[in-house]
């Protein structure tokens, strides 16, 4: 696809494959930031609807796209990534919640796996929002051979959506997501199913559903069609974590049945403390510090450092790479939470880097 309009040459170009809720929201976020966005969908009607709603500039493929976002169902992602790498010259990323099937494709330096931890009870592009990713966590899954420039470029685009980007090795991603995303959805669906079954016996039961029940089961309202693929592709991790959940509930059942008050309170207290300790995002410049890290000119340095930050639970607000014209080294500049800057500094030192910390005024 080409265009002769001169104004198009000045706009950055992106393509979105899959124009549902997530793909449509990505397209809207890109267009809100001045990008020219094309898009396709296996359902031509969905792509036309995305165009009608202003999520797309044009329906179709764009071989000259700077970046292509693959937002198809999980089972279709490998083929879509392969096609995008073959038919475009730009970078490729995806939004799938399972990364195991993508490991071989990650050897291509233009592809960086991704997974936005965001969603909505609404379905399709009609539920898409340009601000869906603001304040959300977006996982990138670099590998040792990931091109630093490709990673930095995709991270910059995603950060512009207002998302917090974290790096997780793909082999660990699927287990982690099973715990914080897949199991919660299946649990919420099970609770909702249980309540629905009991409602046939007690007609007023669902009228009694208060805030706690509604909060716990909210995600059960999500589109069910995506879950067979997710459960198939991440079967091992999901089954393992379901076993852990069943064991934990069995332990809890025993404590309730035997009236073990002290043990029950201890479990609830630990859960309360863990919930209150969930990280929150920083909001002011004075909460940030700058780490400057001299880096060698070798592939995978950025992936190594950002993955370390995730392991140390240090959020990175921004990344800049300053290349040296006089030698093989460059300078990596990271903005991180000020109170955790020393933690990342020490971790980098242990890996052989020589970082320095600068507090922002």
Kindly describe this structure.
The structure is a single chain. The chain has 361 residues and is an alpha/beta fold. It folds into three domains: 11-168, 3-Layer(aba) Sandwich (Rossmann fold), CATH 3.40.50; 174-276, 6-phosphogluconate dehydrogenase C-terminal like domain (6-phosphogluconate dehydrogenase C-terminal fold, Orthogonal Bundle), CATH 1.10.3660; 285-359, ACT domain (Alpha-Beta Plaits, 2-Layer Sandwich). It has twelve helices and twelve strands. It has helices at 6-9, 21-32, 44-52, 77-87, 148-159, 170-199, 211-217, 227-233, 235-258, 261-276, 301-311, 341-350, and strands at residues 13-17, 36-40, 58-59, 67-70, 91-94, 111-117, 137-141, 164-167, 288-296, 316-323, 329-337, 356-359. Strands 3-2-1-4-5-6-7-8 form an eight-stranded mixed β-sheet, with helices on both faces. It has a four-stranded antiparallel β-sheet with strand order 10-11-9-12. Helix 5 (148-159) links the parallel strand 7 (137-141) and strand 8 (164-167). Helix 6 (170-199) packs across helix 9. The radius of gyration is 23 Å and the shape is globular. The protein starts with 5 loop residues before the first helix and ends with a strand.
């Amino acid at each position: 696809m080409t265009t002769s309009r001169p104004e198009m040459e000045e706009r950055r170009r992106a393509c979105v494959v899959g124009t549902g809720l997530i793909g449509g929201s990505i397209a809207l976020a890109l267009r809100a930031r001045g990008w020219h966005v094309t898009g396709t969908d296996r359902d031509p009607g969905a792509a036309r609807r995305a165009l009608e709603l202003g999520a797309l500039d044009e329906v179709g493929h764009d071989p000259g796209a700077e970046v292509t976002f693959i937002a198809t169902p999980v089972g279709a992602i490998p083929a879509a990534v392969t096609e995008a790498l073959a038919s475009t010259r730009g970078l490729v990323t995806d939004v799938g919640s399972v990364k195991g099937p993508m490991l071989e494709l990650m050897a291509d330096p233009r592809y960086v796996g991704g997974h936005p931890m965001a969603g909505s009870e609404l379905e399709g592009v009609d539920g898409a929002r340009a601000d869906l990713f603001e304040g959300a966590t977006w996982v990138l899954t670099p590998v040792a051979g990931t091109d630093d420039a490709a990673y930095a470029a995709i991270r910059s685009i995603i950060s512009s959506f207002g998302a917090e980007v974290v790096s997780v090795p793909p082999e660990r991603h699927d287990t982690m997501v099973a715990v914080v995303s897949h199991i919660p959805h299946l649990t919420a669906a099970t609770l909702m199913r249980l309540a629905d079954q009991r409602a046939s016996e007690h007609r007023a039961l669902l009228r009694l559903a208060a805030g706690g029940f509604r909060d716990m089961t909210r995600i059960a309202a999500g589109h069910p069609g995506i879950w067979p693929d997710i459960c198939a592709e991440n079967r091992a991790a999901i089954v393992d974590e379901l076993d852990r959940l069943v064991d934990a509930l069995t332990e809890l059942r025993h404590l309730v049945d035997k009236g073990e008050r002290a043990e029950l309170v201890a479990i609830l207290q630990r859960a309360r403390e863990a919930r209150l300790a969930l990280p929150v995002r920083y909001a002011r410049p004075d909460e940030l510090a700058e780490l400057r890290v001299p880096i060698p000119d070798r592939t995978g340095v950025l992936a190594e450092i950002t993955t370390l930050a995730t392991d140390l639970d240090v959020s990175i607000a921004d990344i800049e790479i300053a290349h040296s014209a006089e030698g093989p080294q460059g300078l990596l500049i990271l903005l991180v939470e000020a109170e955790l800057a020393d933690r990342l500094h020490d971790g980098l030192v242990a890996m052989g880097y020589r970082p320095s910390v600068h507090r922002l005024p």
